[in-house]
Amino acid sequence: MSLSVTSLVLLMVCSTQASHFLGTVMTYYPKDTFANGSVTVTLRYKLNFHDCIYDYTWSCLSGDCGTETYTLYVVKQESSGDWCQREGIMTRQVSSNAPFELWFNGGNWIDNTKNGIVSWRAVTRVELRNRSNTGKANTSPQTTILPAVRVPSNCQRDFSLLMFDPDGDEVKCRYGNSSLSECNPCTPPSVLSLSSSSCTLSFSPTNSSNEGSYVVQLVMEDFPRQTITLTKTDGTQTTITTNDAISKIPIQFALKVDPAVPSCTEGLFLPKFLPPTPANGAQLYNNIIQTLEINITAELLYSGPYNLISSTSGPGQFTLRWTPSESEDGQSLPICFVVQAVSGGTKYHSELRCVTVTGANVDTPTTTPTPATTPTTTTTPTTTTTSTSSKTLPASTTPSERSYVTVLKLKMTSLVDLSKIDRDTFLTQVRLPQHMSVRLISSNPQIGATAAPCTGKT
Ligand SMILES: *[C@@H]1O[C@H](CO)[C@@H](O)[C@H](O)[C@H]1NC(C)=O
Ligand SMILES: *[C@@H]1O[C@H](CO)[C@@H](O)[C@H](O)[C@H]1NC(C)=O
Ligand SMILES: *[C@@H]1O[C@H](CO)[C@@H](O)[C@H](O)[C@H]1NC(C)=O
Ligand SMILES: *[C@@H]1O[C@H](CO)[C@@H](O)[C@H](O)[C@H]1NC(C)=O
Ligand SMILES: *[C@@H]1O[C@H](CO)[C@@H](O)[C@H](O)[C@H]1NC(C)=O
Strand pairing partners for 292? Predict the structure, then answer.
């Protein structure tokens, strides 16, 4: 009797620990090259589970993967407990720039997936050899995805994954291949069709027997646009053509096919993004010392850098804020979001939108030193986009709500210290589309390259 109780307990422990994975994504940026030939690389990876507690590590599959240090941060926890996405920032130091592969291989996905995937497995190939066309090491394609995306079984939907490559390479997607240890096994979902050149997964209306959870296990690769050579620290050269992938990264997540809805028209059951929403794939630039603000309504679900901060600014309005850290200067990072409306216990997702944000001092002041009597101002609203979501839930449950995502970048530079009145005057002079407001988020002195008494305020 006590024996069977014990084994029952063990079984429960096993199944809670083992059935909870909701995918991963890994990307990398090369960091430093040292005189002795050793190199460092920053790898950012998403870890998606039901809870925010599990810490499984990536290990070396092939090559010399060097030594690692990493820190895990929470990106977003879905409010009903469906999932928690964390981001790991890993730095690896390797003795040479020779390629290596990391893999994530271990426990179990969520239970009862329709395509029969049980175990998780994912592979990243890191290529750091010097590229002949850029004169530096390769950077992987940059992308992200939510742990789970939803679609009602009777609605058509395209999931266009973000595919941004900082080196300007051609990016393609394919399903994982089990003989390359990219998944275990790699059975694609029967309900999706993949366009590999646009990295778009298309879902077509299907019958109720196909409802349930599917595991999507993709590999994203970057290909050179011309034949290039890769040079190792010891001088060895390898030539690769436009058919050879340089690096590869995993994108794994769950697709939930929900029960049919009475209407697939956006704005009725399914939340809808209203113009001016940042278009899918938009690239937004942000000064390293400024905060990018995206005012967006319902629950906003997102995936992006760990230092992305979300807040609610009224019914149906969300704000996403991202202030790049010093170490993110010059990096292009992906953000994806959907709006989730919940009605009668059923969750409805808007379409998936993704943008790339670049943290960089794109507008370094070029003003030559002049007698600093009159404030010189340069205003550059480079990005003024608004996204979002409006949802109208079935009939009387909730009045229809409107919401906006606003992405705005504004930089003002002055050679003299500006008073508050001066700054307010400039802000009011900035011409914006109707219904938009501007507010000063930060006012950090920026030390420019110019030799002027640099008290420029932004
Ligand atoms: C190479 O130099 C780096 C930075 O000084 C150091 O951390 C690393 O241990 C050195 N590697 C070897 C193999 O000596
Ligand atoms: C890569 O090669 C270029 C010349 O092709 C050279 O200028 C550069 O220093 C090299 N970079 C590294 C990290 O070795
Ligand atoms: C999987 O990879 C193996 C080894 O590279 C290759 O021979 C095979 O064609 C690949 N399978 C698919 C479906 O691409
Ligand atoms: C649903 O579609 C599957 C194939 O996709 C088919 O085998 C099944 O008979 C269909 N069921 C109904 C109720 O139409
Ligand atoms: C975003 O919403 C917050 C809260 O309502 C507001 O304080 C802020 O000014 C808005 N930002 C923009 C750029 O409209």
Answer: 322
User: 256-298, pLDDT tens digit by residue?
Assistant: 999 998 888 887 667 766 544 566 767 666 554 455 554 433 6
DSSP state of 142: B
Cβ proximity of 140 and 223 under 8 Å = no
Please tell me if the CB atom of residue 114 comes closer than 6 angstroms to any atom of ligand 4: no
pLDDT tens track for 442-451? 444 333 332 2
Q: What is the pLDDT of residues 32-63, one digit of tens each?
A: 999 999 999 999 999 999 999 888 999 999 99
Tens digit of pLDDT for each residue in 148-206?
A: 999 999 999 999 999 999 999 999 999 999 999 999 999 999 999 999 999 999 999 99
User: Does residue 153's CB lie within 6 angstroms of at least one atom of ligand 4?
Assistant: no
CA distances for 131 relative to 163, 233, 372, angstroms: 20, 12, 45
Q: Tell me the average pLDDT across 121-143.
A: 97
**Is the CB of 2 inside a 6 Å radius of any atom of ligand 3?**
no
Ligand at shortest distance from the CA of 295: 5
* Rounded Cα distance, 121 and 126, in Å: 17
Burial class, 384, CB count within 10 angstroms (exposed 0-12 / middle 13-18 / buried 19+) = middle
Report which ligand 4 atom has the smallest distance to the Cα of 190. 5
* Residue 178: how many other CB atoms lie within 10 Å: 14
Distance 295 CA to ligand 5 centre (A): 6
Whether 207 is in the pocket of ligand 4, judged by its Cβ within 6 Å, is yes
Q: How many whole angstroms from 204 Cα to the centroid of ligand 4?
A: 14
Ligand 4: which residue has its CA nearest to atom 7?
A: 209
Q: Whose CA is nearest to atom 13 of ligand 3?
A: 177
CB 138 within 8 A of CB 130: no
Instruction: Please provide residue 67's backbone torsions phi and psi, each rounded to the nearest 5 degrees.
Output: -115, 155
Span from the CA of 207 to the centroid of ligand 4 (angstroms): 6
